[in-house]
Every structure is written in C-alpha cells, then in structure tokens.
Design a protein that fits this description.
binds iron/sulfur cluster, about 30% helix, Dimethylsulfoxide Reductase, domain 2, 4 domains, seven-stranded mixed beta sheet, oxidoreductase, alpha/beta, single chain, about 700 residues, six-stranded mixed barrel
Length: about 700
Amino acid sequence: VIKLGQAEHSVITTCAYCGVGCGFKAEMKGNEVVRMVPWKDGKANEGHSCVKGRFAWGYTTHKDRITKPMIRDQITDPWREVSWDEAISYAARRFREIQAQHGKDSIGGITSSRCTNEETYLVQKLVRAAFGTNNVDTCARVCHSPTGYGLGQTFGTSAGTQTFSSVDEADVIMVIGANPSDAHPVFASRMKKRLRGRGHGDGASLIVVDPRRIDLVSSPHVRAEHHLALRPGTNVAVITALAHVVVNEGLVNEAYVAERCDTRSFEQWREFVGRPENSPEALEASTGVPAAEVRAAARLYAAGPNSAIYYGLGVTEHAQGSTMVMGIANLAMACGMVGREGVGVNPLRGQNNVQGSCDMGSFPHELPGYRHISDTTVRTQFEAVWGVELNPEPGLRIPNMFEAAIGGTFKGLYCQGEDIAQSDPNTQHVSQALGSMECIVVQDIFLNETAKFAHVLLPGSSFLEKDGTFTNAERRISRVRQVMPPMAGLADWEVTVQLSNALGYPMHYDHPEQIMQEIADLTPSFRGVSYEAIERLGSLQWPCNEDTPAAGTAIMHEGGFVRGKGRFFITQYIPSDEKVTRRFPLLLTTGRILSQYNVGAQTRRTPNNMWHDEDRLELHPEDAKERGVVDGDWVGITSRAGQTVLRATVSDRMQPGVVYTTFHFPESGANVITTDSSDWATNCPEYKVTAVQVSKVAQP
Ligand code: SF4
C-alpha cells in the first residue's frame, strides 16, 4: 500500500482510449479511483498523458451504467430485469432456436477494439467453436481493415513497423490522413518535439497530406514544409504521383530494392508509376495539389536519410483504402525506408485495442495471428486445442451480415462493446438490418444506439473492472489491471465464458492469464507473451517468441520482410463514386476532436466535455458566404443517403468545396449522411468522401 495523499493505494493499468496506450497509475481509496496519474515508466507515454486518459474516466461510475441484465421478446416490449443466469440461458436458447431453423451460419458475433485481447479472443472462439460458424468480425472493419490487408500483402504482417520512440530518429516525417494532435495527443507531442529539434535548425522536416489545414500544418511551434491539400478521395493519385517523381528522377534506393524486395513486382510497379499519366502534372487536376508541391515533397521524402510515414483513417476509410496502404508501402520500400530506426510505415490506431482485436482472430477469414482459416495445418492446431471441427470457409463481414439480415438469412448477433447502429455508415441501412434480426445480444456498459434493436442486454465492464491486456499501435502489449470489482458482478470475459457454457461448449478459465497462455500456445508471434513476462519487463512487443529478445520486437522487418521479399503492387487510381454534382456540390469528410472519443459514449459522460458539446460542420468562408451562412448558424446537410442538421463553423482550415464534421454525438447523425460505398478489398466504409449540399436552416 502506497500512501498518496487522499489515495490509499495505486494500481498500474493502461488507458482505454486511443491506440497510443499510455500507462497510468490509478490512485485508489477503497474501491474508488481518486485520480489517474500518467505512469512515468510507461514505455508508450513516459509519464505524459492527454485530457482523455487523465480526466475522462468518470464514465466508469456514471449513473447511466447498465448494472442488471435485461431481456425482452420483441424490441417493442419494455425491458425486463433478470438474473445473469436467466439472461444468458435466454440468449443461448434463442441462438440455438435460430440455428435449428436457419442453420449454423444464421448467427454471428462482433468483437470490440475497446475490450481486452483475452476478451476478443474468447468472442471469436465462441463464434467459431460454440456457434460453429466463422461469422465473426470486428469494429476494425470500419477503420483499419485496409491496413491489415495492405501491409499484409506488401510486408507480410498487418502492423506498424516502429516503436513510437523511433520518431526521434526521423529526419523527414510524412503525416497522411491523420490528425495526431487531436486523435493521438501524447504521440503528437513526441512528434512535435522531433519537428522542433533542439533549436538549431536540426528538427525533422514535415510533409502533411490532408484536405484540411490541421494543427500540424501551421501551429505556433511547428510548420509543415509541404502541405499537400488534396481533394478528398484522391489519395491514390497523390501517392502514385509521389512515386512517379521518385522513379523518374532517379531517387529509388536501388541497392535496397535489389536486396530486400521482389524485383519482378518492383519492375512492373516502376513501369506503371513512371508513365506520363501518373505524373504530378497529369494528376493535378484530379488531386488539386500543385505538381511542384508534389515534386518537392517526393524529393524531400526520398532524400531522408530517415523518412517515416504516419497515417490514419484518412488513408483507410476510402473505396481505395487498401490500395492507398499498398501505395504507401510501395513508396517506403522504393526509397529504402523500412527496417531501421527513424523510418517505417505506421498506422495510428484510433481505439486502444484495434491492433489487438485484429491480432486475436476477429476477422471472418483469419484465426489469431493472421493465419487464414483455410490453412489446414493451422486449423488442425486450433481444432486439437478447442476440441471442435472448424469450418474452413471464411464467414461474413459486418456489411455482409447486414445484407444477409435484410435478405432474411442472418438472424442473430452477439455484439460486444461496439455501437454499430451509430458508428457504421448509412444509418438507415444499418437500422433496417438490425430491425430484421430475431435475436440481438448487446454487451455494453451503456444503453447504446444498437441496444434499441436488442433482445438481450448484458452489462459490460469498464477497463477499471477487469484484468487483461491491450495492444497499442506499436504492437506493445500492456497489462490492464482490475482496480475495482465489476459493477454488474461479472467481467466481460466471464460473460462470454458463461454464454459459451450455456450453449453447450464449456470454457474453463478462472483468470484472463489462462486465456493469454492459450493464445501464446496457439500463436507463434505471441509464444513469448505471458503475464509474468509483462510483469517483469513492463510491456512486450509482438512478435515476441524464441527468435526475438525477451521484450519482443521493437522494429519490424529489420533483416528482411516478414513475407520474405517486400512486394510491390500496382496502385491504379480510380475516382470515387461519390462525385460532386450541381445537387451535391461539396465533399464532406470526417474526423475527431481532442476532447471526445469516437461515438462519445465515454467522453460525453465525463465533466471535461463541457468545452466541446456538439458536432459542428466546418466550411470555408467562400462556401459559407455563397450560402449566407455565418459562424454558429444552423445548416442542413443533405447527401444521397440522408440528411442531418448541425451548427456551422466558418473556417479557413477548410479548402473551398470541402466540408468537415466530427462524429461524437448520436444526435448529430453524421452517419445518416455517409454512404455505404466501401473499400474494394475489405469493405471498410468510405466515410471520408460524401457528396453533400449545405444550406442555412432555422434552429431545429
Ligand atoms: Fe489515453 Fe491516447 Fe490520451 Fe494516451 S494519448 S492518455 S492513450 S487518449
């Protein structure tokens, strides 16, 4: 017991917000958290924190918490509070009845990037082993699934290549479609420190690729050398134009490519990007970025000597999201910028455990460790440990579940810690799908939007109420430690175990540590992961096994790419289907703000949200003037999918013709207007490009 003023003891745990994964000390008085103090030994944050991690934990004891299981036969019936046993038996019975009538594949499950690795692993195990189907997907479907595909194809593994500290060695930093100042604040501070240097002109140079003039472009202490303010939906054209300059101006790192890459795919790619139609000049009309800026940025990136790319959902949430991820990987390989400190390709993960939920086999085609379900050798290993026969065919992704529900063949869903009704695109379509199902089981800490369509509500547990691990954006596995008992009596992993038992597939775990042991036994990249090792070393980075140092792997692809030779892919730019017309003359794109987090379920229930209490529509002064809109006016936003009303912020951060909003408040209905257009490879929704009209309206 450590005496800390008011506090009686402290427990070290990990922030439950963004993918930076900051370590915190929860200072406690009895079962009550007195305050959260950033942990100075936390490797991801080294004693730093942002407003969310430090102050926005009050939601864990908010009066809106669901603490009693509830059931109802029809979604029009009132909720009835029942015991855990009754709720779980009811859910199991209804799932089995649906399967008896419509087949095993008529139900499925969704895992959460806010839950622990152990909980996510259990949900996919429940779906595959107890439900007997591969219809399991994760909320990463709507954010970083193109990262999984694109980096898997090019490098051989679906993860960022660097530690956060690697940015200290970068000479050139390229930020694409990410706003770390708002979405990854602690890492943004580290990046800014590197950009500022030590005051002798030795800071790193910055290139920002973003339609909006984000904070990094010109803040008091940091200024981007090049801001490629592209039109939304033209990422692939920009990355191809950058590559064109590298290839045609002799900037390729030939020795690196010859030694480390698949030269056949490289030569095909070189021929493709080198064509005149892929020059910055030829693509300028599409991208809106002056060719001279593209040429200068390409030269700067290629010159390095250490150039690092950091990207976010502005890359992935596009119809060509996977193509763009591969385009980034192509560029990095061609310039020799993968496999050492200070370089690399780094997806910035929005949620605390997006990396982990993907690692744990949450995709319908992959078992834990990104191994395809059709691989007989891998499947046999899981079958031996799980004691069931697994289906070798991939299951349904979330959008396919919705289609099948509307088509009448998908009837039941177990949804843990994910508000698909608010966060998935084209709300009307999602509502139709959810309203078509016979049994939806929602496991969450609040009565979220999806719960409106649910038949069973199982109370979830917050990160303070359970043990487990989260994996951050640098593949760092850190402990989540229970600091108070679960408010509803059971932690999320215990609920999944009980549901599985009720379905007739017994699971035998007394503690999440045993679940991690099973994960390590079955997953080569996790073979060296254990709670004991995390306790001893503070955190581990996968791959962590007999071939790596005890704490795992800080820099990926050092001696060679995981897939062997790095592979280049052709990145043909295909314009988005979302075209501006006279009816919809503006392009809407979306993003986050510092004080809020995703759908706001947590941050809206803490006092610090007082300084940002609504989503607003940002538009350029020219677009505002044309519509007679001044700052603070109410505006109607109409797209081909739907319409909503927000207040306007007139801002020269925007370029003319492009508008922007956040998506933290359910009443704003940002996803009422987004369409169901999605990435060709992964179905990740194209949230970042929606053609809209904006007009002034009366206050609703
Ligand atoms: Fe939490 Fe991210 Fe803020 Fe760190 S930067 S305190 S992980 S929200």
